[in-house]
Structure formats: C-alpha cells, structure tokens
Write a structure and sequence with these properties.
Blueprint: H1 4-8, H2 13-32, H3 46-55, H4 57-83, H5 89-103, H6 105-114, H7 119-145, H8 155-177, H9 183-199
Helix pairs in contact: 2-4, 2-5, 2-6, 4-6, 4-7, 4-9, 5-7, 6-7, 7-8, 8-9
Length: 214
C-alpha cells in the first residue's frame, strides 16, 4: 500500500522537464571540451595548422555523433512529456534513470573517439544508446498502463511514439552487430541512423485514388 507521501510526490512535470533541459545542456556542452586545439608549439605555418586541424577530424565526427544522439533523445523525451498529463514518483524515477544514462554520453563518446577501431568501444557506445532507449520505452508503457496520457491524444500518436523508439533501437542494434565486420562499419551505420532521425526526411505520400490530379 503506497504511503501518502509516495502518492503526492513528484507530480510536477514542469520541474522534470526543466531538470532534463539542464542535464542535456550540460552533457552537450561537455562534449565539446574534448576538442583540443592544435598545440601552438607545433604550428609554424598555414600547412601545420591545416594538418593539425585535419587530425581533429575523428574527434569532430565523434562530437557530432554524440551531439546528434543527445539531440535525438532530448526530442524523444520532450515529445513524451508533451503528451503526459501528470507525473508520479515512479515515473519521475524512470526519467531520472534516463537522465543518468544521458550524463554518461560524454564518456562513451570520448571512449569511441579515442578507440573507435576497437569493438569494445563501439559496444560501450551502443549500450549507452540502448539504455536510454529502453527507459523511454518503459516510460511510455508506464504512462499508458496508468492512464497518465492526455485524454485528447489520438491512438495513432500513442502508437507512433512507442514504435519510433522500438524501430530506432533495432536499427542501432544492427549497427552494433556490424562490428563483427569492423568497427568502422558500426560507426558509419549508427551515424547514418542518427542523421536520418535528425533530418526526419519526409517520404512522398501516395496519392489517393479519388484525389483530383493537379
């Protein structure tokens, strides 16, 4: 039997959203700290500077990959919060666990940047994508089961949120599995998946049979 405190705790979604914004902003900022400038003592000409910047390319790619990952998960969480009517203690802890995995993203991104040629680094990064995905899926299932979604939310939106998380995690798992053939295959595939979700390309709709020709 839940106590009175547990029934009344953590019902303000605005506070949860504000905390999430802060955590994501911090994680996104920390990512850029790993982009060290070329050593001044090693730069004596334009050629040296361009060569030093070229050496930053792998770190720049990993920074972009990590930033896209955080942006995708921020969008996913905020989309859910927009359709949730109320919160409770259990839902708050699900999202706190989600934010915990987000704070680990700079670590797993830096690990991948330094050791992208090792499968272990790819798998650690993938696991850091899997965990927040599982927690977002758990969150949506929880609010669905406890009737915490706004009543005016159409059924197709309820299904779309769940489906998007599920499909994304399948694609990420495929990317992780590609490390059997080489870690670069995994990194490239995961990056392509992230670009797809960030760009959200719109496929042309089929014209209805009764629609007038234009």
């Amino acid at each position: 039997m839940p106590t009175l405190y547990n029934r009344i705790a953590n019902q303000n979604l605005d506070r949860l959203s504000a905390l999430s914004d802060g955590v994501f902003a911090f994680a996104m900022t920390v990512l850029v700290l790993d982009l060290a400038l070329p050593a001044a003592g090693a730069v004596h000409s334009e050629h040296d500077l361009w060569r030093g910047l070229a050496k930053l390319a792998p770190n720049l790619l990993m920074y972009l990959t990590g930033f896209l990952t955080l942006g995708i998960f921020w969008n996913g969480q905020q989309t859910q919060l927009n359709y949730i009517e109320r919160s409770d203690r259990d839902l708050t802890w699900i999202h706190l666990a989600f934010l915990f995995t987000i704070t680990l993203m700079p670590f797993s991104t830096k690990l991948l940047a330094l050791f992208f040629h090792y499968r272990a680094a790819v798998l650690v990064y993938w696991f850091n994508i899997l965990l927040p995905g599982v927690l977002l899926y758990t969150s949506w299932k929880y609010v669905s089961r406890h009737d915490m979604i706004r009543a005016e939310t159409p059924p197709e939106i309820r299904a779309a949120i769940c489906r998007r998380v599920f499909i994304a995690q399948i694609l990420y798992a495929v990317g992780a599995a590609l490390c059997v053939f080489g870690s670069l295959w995994s990194v490239a595939f995961i990056f392509a998946v992230q670009l797809n979700y960030a760009a959200a390309p719109r496929l042309p709709r089929r014209k209805r049979a009764d629609a007038p020709a234009v």
